[in-house]
Amino acid sequence: MDLAAYDALSPAEQAAHDASQRDKEAQEQAALPYRWTQALDHVALNFPVEQGTKAKTLDVKIKKKGLSIARKGGEVLLEGEFPKEVKLEDSVWSLEDSCLISIHLEKSNASEWWPHVFTKDPKIDTTKLTPENSKLSDLDGDTRAMVEKMMFDNRQKQMGLPTSDEQKQQEILKKFQAQHPEMDFSQAKIGGGGAAGAFGGFPSQ
């Protein structure tokens, strides 16, 4: 369902749609052979293996945009491509209780959510995700404002809506248009050129 169709629903219909999507998403995630969680800066993945497994018998390869888990000289247990790159120097794995492979993936871009761990797997709705309040409150004012702005812009882009900068440009354009009704704004475009760029190319009066 696209955004326009969703907005046309009544509040009750939107709530029912959201509940249905949550149930579908939960079923898809439960069917995966691993469990995962994420914060803005990292992804944590847990993959169960046979009890009594030893780390030296495993071949775990973490790449910038992918992961593979296999038995040395044997079968591949888990493999896939990441939707985004990770920092190799800060991404690690360990074997817990001889039966659980725990993997920490440090995101290269610490300001966006991943819709899935592997591109082949079902996506989650990242527009519904928010960072832990404690994490945000730990940041200083400027950094927190920057993270919140990036999160907002990321959600807006995913929904095909204007970013915060584009919204500001639109507001400035509207005010300027109201002050100068004699000017032709039909060809004005809102883009990445800032407020000055938004007004470039207007015919002189």
UniProtKB/TrEMBL annotation:
Cited SUPFAM superfamilies: HSP20-like chaperones
Gene3D superfamilies linked: 2.60.40.790
State a single Pfam family of this protein.
CS
Question: Quick one: a GO cellular component term?
Answer: cytoplasm
One MF term in the entry's GO annotations: unfolded protein binding
What does the function comment of this entry state? Required for nuclear movement. May interact between microtubules and nuclei and/or may be involved in the generation of force used to move nuclei during interphase.
Question: What's the protein here called?
Answer: Nuclear movement protein nudC
| Originating organism | Pseudomicrostroma glucosiphilum
